[in-house]
Every structure is written in C-alpha cells, then in structure tokens.
C-alpha cells in the first residue's frame, strides 16, 4: 500500500510532467492525416505537405472584390441633357468605414470604402460635362471626396467636412481637364483615410474621343495591415498577386490602354514595368501626344497617366513594379495575349 | 467502516464546493453574454522559436503565445511573400505550435528575416544572423556529439575523482573544509544554472511563459522531488554505515549530471547555430570547470573504503548526461526544453547543497565552524576564477 505522502507525490509528479509535456509537445497529433496537399513554388518546384498550404492565391469564388470586374468597369453615371445642351452625369457615392475585407487570402483588414469597394467606382465623363455627385457618409468618422481637377474651392472636399452617420453633400463641377485623375477622402489624417481605401479613379475623356482600344484601370495600392508604418502588401487593384494567378486576357495586335493611378501611401515612389513590348506614356493623360515611349515609368504619390501598347506575339507577359520589394509583396501580374483571329480553344494553365 | 466512508465523502464534497462556486462565478463574469469585462483590445501574438535551414527549404517553428487562437496565413523571407506549407495545420490554439516550411534557395552564411503574418494582418519576424545548414542526426553527427560530451562531461569528472586518495588522507578539520568547499562549488554551479535558465528564457522565450517564474517553479519542484527521492534512498540503504556517504555522493552525482546535461545543451545548440567559436569556448570552459565536479563527488566518500567501481559509476552518472545534452541541444533544441532542463538542474544542485550541509551538521554538530565557512568561500572563489579565466 502506498502512504498518503506517496500518493500525493505521484499526483503532483503526474500533473507537472503532463503540463510540461503539453508545453513541449503540444503538436502531437494522434488523429490520422488526410490526403497530402501539393503546391508549386515560384521557381516551379512541386512541394507536398501533410498540413495547410500558405499561398496568397485567390480563387474567383472566394474573392469579395473582383479585380477581374473592376479592371474594365467604368461608371458613366445617370446621363441627362440640360436645357443648354450640356450633358449632366449624376453619381451617388456612399462612404463606409466598418467593412472587414479579406484583402489577401486569410488576411482580414478594416477597409474604408466608397460604394463598398477599394478602390471606389471608376467615374467617367467627357470634358465639359456637368458632373454631380451625391455623397452620403454612412461611416462612423467624418469623410469627404476631394477630386483632382478643375472646380470651385467649395467643391474641393477640404473644408466642407461631411459628418458621420448619414451626412450628405453634393459635389458639382464641370469635368476637366482631360486626363486620368484620382479622387479620395481628404479628412485629416489623410494618410489614414487613403491607407484604409478611400480613393478611386476619375477619367475625363476628350470631346473628340480617343482611338478605339481595350481599356482598363489599374490603381496601384498598398496596405499597412499591422500599422508599423510600412506596407505589408502591394497590388494593382488591391488584391496581391491576383493578375499573376488570373492573367488579363488581351488580343494580339489590339491597342491596349491602361489608366494607371498610383495611390500607394508610405512609400515615396512606385513604378510600372511591362514585358515584351514598350508603351506610349501620357503623363496625367492631359495631352493627346505621348511624352515617352518606354517600358518603365516612375510614379510619385497620386501621380498617374495613360499607357498604350500592342503585342506583336501571343503568350504570357509580366507587368510589375520594378521595385522588387513591391513585386515580392504582390504588385505583379500577367497579360495573356491571344490571337483573336483564331478560335479561343486553347486550354490555358493558370498561374503555373 | 460505513461511518468512515460517509465522512470521507463529506470531506471530498466539502473540498469540491468552493471550486464549483468559483467556476460558477468565473463563468458568470467572463462567460458568453457577460458584459462586465468588455473593455480593451485582445492582441494576438505568435513567436518564431526556431529556424532551421535544410535542402532548399527554411523551416520555422512557430508557437501561439498570445491570449487568443490565431490562423497563420502568409509566410515571407526578407519581405518576399512565398508559397509555403504549415504542418499540422494553420490554426493555432493558445500555446499550440506548428512547423512552417518555406521552399527557398538560401545561401549559407547570409542573414535572413523570416516573417509570418496572421489573419488580422500582423506580421511577426525572426531575424537569423547567419544561415547554416541544420545538423541532421546522422551516425557521424551522433558520434561526434558523443565524443564532445565525453570530453566535457565524463573525462573531467573522472579526473576530478582522482582527488579521492588525497582527500581520504586529510585530517578531520581539513576534510570538513573540503566538504564545505564542495558546497561552495555547488552553490556557484546552482546560481550559474539558474542564471543560464533565466537568460535563455529572457532571450528566446515569449513573455507569456513568465520565464523567471517558470524557472523558479520547475527548480523548486525538482528540489522537492529529489529531496523526497533522497530520503527514500537513505531509508532503503538502512543503518549501514557506508550507505550514508554513498547515498549523498549519489545525490551529488545526480545533481551534477542534470547540470552537465544543461552544459551539453548549450554546447550542442551553439554548434547547431553555427557559432563555432562559442562552441569551442564552451567545450574548453566546461571541461576545466567539470574537474571540480569530480572532486565534489569524491569528497563525501573519502571517509569510506575506496570502492573504485562505485566511484567510477558515480562519475558516469554525473558525466554521461553531458552527451545526452549535446544530442538534445544539437538535434531537437527548443528554448523551452532548455529552460526546463536548466531549471531542473538548478533545483537538483540546491537539493544536494542542503544534503551536504545536513551531513556536515550531523557529523560536526554545527555549521558556523571556521573551516566550513572558509571552505564554502574558497569553493565559490575557485569557481568564479576558473569561470573568468576560460
């Protein structure tokens, strides 16, 4: 028979050994593993794991904000004619600041949005149109919309702060000058309001129009998800690596026009490099004659422009920041150039 | 019998009632639906405890050291976001750990920062100063570590045991002095073990483990457990005159063995981390240091007949753990195991000190004897001086 002292000793020893054992080997798993998963590294190696794969690959089903759709989505507003023949374009933009969005697979971030997405809608008008924007602030904080371009001081979105919980303001101005401009919230601290996603693109077309092209918008943006003053993720159109895994399909020998707007905060510059061809560059899109023919343009904060190019050959071509830090953190993508004269029956292997 | 059972049931119930009430109160205050404590923000935390470099892969061991469960969702090397795998799975409960495998062609000798991002977007980083291929437990490496463990642990202790004939010829008061000297040596070793444990926990363990309190708790539990075992050992040895000194020598050997295990850990870990200079320094330092440990084992046996077999066995008990230490440190190092072993060693050494002091008191009647005090002081000084000389 054991004495009570011995019993006590055994109990204490068992409990403490058990606790230490748990601390040292908590991952001991007695359940059987399921089918091993497989993933592909950036250099093409295939790796097998019995656990979970950590890879920022978004599938179309998972994504809340669809970069595919945003790319070629232009909002021309509710169009009507005024008595003097001027075109009136009316838009409603609602600001919110309580959305949690999965901005990269598994990473949830509090985004502040215009019309529910980052970036907000791409607003498009022709030079000379009357643009009227009904702005409603449904957020918990004060917000405004500050448009780049020509307008009266009281339409500038600086001093006319729009209160939270349903505050309203109507911005009205004549669209101009021709070009591609950002709009964004201008409430202090601006860095914070932009960093959380309150921005979008405003395109003013020339009256005579531009040459027919496959047009798209790319907002270069970044997110500092842990608020350490450094962006954790970069992208063209919010989702890191999205166009890398879902290449943008374009046609060979067709003019491609991309409206590029750099909204990255915290870093002083960004850039846009294209593979396999060079592009004509129109700084701010204000001139109809290109300033450069290049494959590399540098953007400061809120700097923007129009790039135009065509591909002579089919295949996959990268476009990305030539700052490797940005491309390593997600600002990279692919164009998949097809020959439109042939039937599109080719089976394409995405992302490999 | 009936009466006794019912009373013991009553005792059990009366012991449980306060726990039940406490559980109810905690459930009410902190449980779901309670709004009493809803202030503040819970901040998740993970710690990257270990980084290993193998063939075209970097392997990070990560532990959830925060107050809430987290998901690990992204891995990067030097801010380069890379496809990776996490095993067994990406969801980590409190204290749970996992292994993140990041396929990457790393370069030897280069520094790397390993980053992991959790579901709320917070990135945690571990800086590795020098990438070195992680050591695999091959036969060559196992025997290499065994040889080092032998040089550090077994041989110096055996050399120290050779003081046996010298001690056994000493007069009574000089003998007391040397026994007390042993206490001084052990006191120094105990403090250095504790310091090592606390240092390791401060450098490599997350705050959530309460490093100092972990060391204190483990050390005291090990002290009490060995005390209990020691008493049993003595009782079992019975009235035999030889048994007392041998039992004490055995306890000393066990305590020193645990301490040497810690030394082995330090050497193994230093070699694995590619810190060749530190490894070599530790080997020489510990080897010199450990001859004094042989002396400590020999001293209490010096009044008995020379039993070479037993003495050698005790030497092995004290020395061999150094080999196990180098294996553990070299192949399965984790800061938590290191801290726990060092703390166990600390408790063991202090237990041995108490044992020897009690023995001196039984033999001599009092401890405040000048030769005893001088012995302890000289023991500490010897250790301190050897520790700064090497």
Automatic annotation (TrEMBL), chain B:
Coiled coil stretches, renumbered: none
Highest taxon in the source lineage: Archaea
Annotated protein name in UniProt: Divalent cation transporter
Keyword hit for Membrane: yes
TM annotation in the entry: 12-31, 142-163, 175-192, 212-230, 242-259, 265-288, 308-333, 339-360, 372-389
UniProt keyword list: Membrane, Transmembrane, Transmembrane helix
Keyword match Transferase: no
């Amino acid at each position: 028979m054991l004495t009570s002292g011995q019993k006590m000793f055994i109990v204490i020893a068992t409990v403490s050994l058990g606790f230490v054992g748990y601390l040292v080997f908590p991952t001991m798993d007695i359940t059987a593993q399921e089918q091993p998963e497989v993933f592909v590294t950036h250099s093409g190696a295939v790796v097998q794991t019995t656990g979970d794969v950590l890879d920022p690959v978004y599938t179309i089903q998972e994504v809340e904000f669809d970069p595919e759709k945003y790319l070629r989505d232009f909002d021309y507003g509710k169009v009507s004619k005024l008595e003097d023949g001027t075109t009136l374009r009316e838009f409603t933009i609602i600001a919110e600041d309580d959305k949690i969005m999965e901005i990269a697979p598994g990473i949830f971030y509090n985004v502040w949005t215009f019309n529910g997405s980052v970036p907000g809608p791409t607003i498009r008008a022709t030079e000379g149109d009357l643009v009227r924007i009904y702005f409603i602030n449904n957020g918990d904080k004060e917000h405004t919309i500050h448009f780049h371009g020509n307008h009266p001081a009281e339409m500038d979105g600086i001093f006319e702060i729009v209160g939270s919980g349903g505050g309203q303001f109507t911005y009205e101005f004549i669209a101009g000058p021709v070009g591609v401009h950002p709009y964004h919230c201008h409430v202090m601290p601006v860095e914070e309001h932009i960093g959380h996603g309150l921005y979008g693109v405003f395109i003013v077309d020339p009256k005579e129009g531009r040459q027919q092209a496959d047009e798209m918008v790319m907002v270069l943006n970044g997110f500092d998800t842990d608020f350490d003053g450094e962006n954790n993720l970069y992208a063209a159109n919010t989702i890191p690596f999205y166009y890398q895994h879902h290449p943008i399909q374009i046609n060979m020998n067709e003019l491609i026009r991309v409206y590029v707007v750099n909204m990255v905060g915290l870093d002083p510059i960004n850039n846009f490099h294209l593979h396999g061809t060079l592009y004509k560059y129109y700084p701010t899109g204000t001139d109809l004659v290109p300033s450069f023919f290049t494959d590399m343009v540098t953007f400061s904060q809120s700097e923007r422009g129009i790039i135009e190019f065509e591909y002579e050959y089919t295949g996959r071509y990268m476009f990305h920041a030539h700052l490797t830090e940005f491309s390593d953190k997600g600002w990279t993508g692919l164009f998949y150039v097809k020959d439109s004269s042939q039937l599109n029956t080719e089976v394409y292997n995405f992302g490999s | 019998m009936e009466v006794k059972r019912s009373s013991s049931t009553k005792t059990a119930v009366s012991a449980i009632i306060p726990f039940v009430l406490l559980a109810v109160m905690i459930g009410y205050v902190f449980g779901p639906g309670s709004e009493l404590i809803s202030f503040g923000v819970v901040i998740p935390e993970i710690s990257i405890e270990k980084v290993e470099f193998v063939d075209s892969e970097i392997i990070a061991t990560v532990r959830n050291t925060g107050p809430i469960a987290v998901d690990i969702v992204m891995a990067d090397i030097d801010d380069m976001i890379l496809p990776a795998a996490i095993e067994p799975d990406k969801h980590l409960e409190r204290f749970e750990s996992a292994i993140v495998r990041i396929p990457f062609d790393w370069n030897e000798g280069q520094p790397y920062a390993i980053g992991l991002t959790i579901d709320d977007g917070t990135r945690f980083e571990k800086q590795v100063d020098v990438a070195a291929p992680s050591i695999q437990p091959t036969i060559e490496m196992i025997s290499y570590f065994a040889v080092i463990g032998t040089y550090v642990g077994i041989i110096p202790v055996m050399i120290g045991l050779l003081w046996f004939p010298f001690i056994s010829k000493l007069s009574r008061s000089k003998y007391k002095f040397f026994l007390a000297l042993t206490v001084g040596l052990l006191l120094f070793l105990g403090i250095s073990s504790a310091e090592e444990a606390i240092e390791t926990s401060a450098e490599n363990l997350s705050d959530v483990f309460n490093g100092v309190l972990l060391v204190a708790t483990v050390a005291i539990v090990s002290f009490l457990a060995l005390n209990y075992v020691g008493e049993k050992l003595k009782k079992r040895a019975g009235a035999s005159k030889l048994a007392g000194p041998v039992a004490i020598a055995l306890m000393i050997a066990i305590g020193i063995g645990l301490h040497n295990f810690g030394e082995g850990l330090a050497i193994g870990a230093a070699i694995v981390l590619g810190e060749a200079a530190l490894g070599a320094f530790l080997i020489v330092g510990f080897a010199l240091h450990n001859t004094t440990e042989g002396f400590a084992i020999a001293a209490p046996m010096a009044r008995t007949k020379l039993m070479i077999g037993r003495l050698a066995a005790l030497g092995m008990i004290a020395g061999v753990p150094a080999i196990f230490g180098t294996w553990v440190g070299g192949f399965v190092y984790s800061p938590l195991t290191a801290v726990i072993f060092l703390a166990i060693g600390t408790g063991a050494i202090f237990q041995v000190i108490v044992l020897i002091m009690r023995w001196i008191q039984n033999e001599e009647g009092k401890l405040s004897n000048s030769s005893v005090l001088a012995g302890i002081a000289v023991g500490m000084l010897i250790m301190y001086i050897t520790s700064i000389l090497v």
